[in-house]
Amino acid sequence: MADDDDANLGQAVAVVAAGSVSMLVAVGASFWAMEAYGSGRLARGWRWLRVRALGGVTTLRRDLSYNCAMCQYSLATHEEVRTLSCNHVFHCRESDKCRNVIDRWLVQESMICPICRRIPLPVLPWKARPPLSPAPAG
User: Fold this and answer.
1) pTM, 2 dp
2) Per-residue model confidence as pLDDT tens for the chain (138 residues)
3) Any idea where the domains of the chain sit in the sequence?
4) Domain 56-138 architecture
C-alpha cells in the first residue's frame, strides 16, 4: 500500500512539473511575441516574406535598351533585376550604380510600384524575361 502511495505521489509530482514547464514556455513565448510585435520586427519580417514571394528576379543575359525605373542607370548583362507584375524593371541588388534597390522600397507598408503605383502581384516562374522596351508609366 505504501508503494502505491509513493507511485501516485511520484506521478502527481511529474504531472505538476510538466504542467509548470509548459506554462513557463507558453508565457515566455507570449512575452517574446509581444516584444517582437511592439518593436516592429514581426511586421518587417512579414513584409520581407511578401517581397520574396513576388518572384520575378532574373540575372540578365544581355544588356537591356532601357534603364532601371528607380535609379535610371542602365540594366547590364549579369546584373540581377526584379520585374514586377506591371512590367517595370529594377535593380535587385545594391551596387555602385544603384543603392536604392526595389526590395527596400517594397518592404515599406504600402507595397506598391514606385512608377505606376499599382500593387505588385506574384510573378509566375514562366513569366517572360524583362521586355526589350520599357513598360508605359501609369
Assistant:
1) 0.59
2) 556 666 677 777 777 777 777 777 777 776 666 665 565 555 667 778 888 888 888 888 888 888 988 888 888 899 888 888 898 998 887 777 887 788 888 888 778 999 999 999 888 765 556 666 666 665
3) 2-39, 56-138
4) 2-Layer Sandwich (3.30)
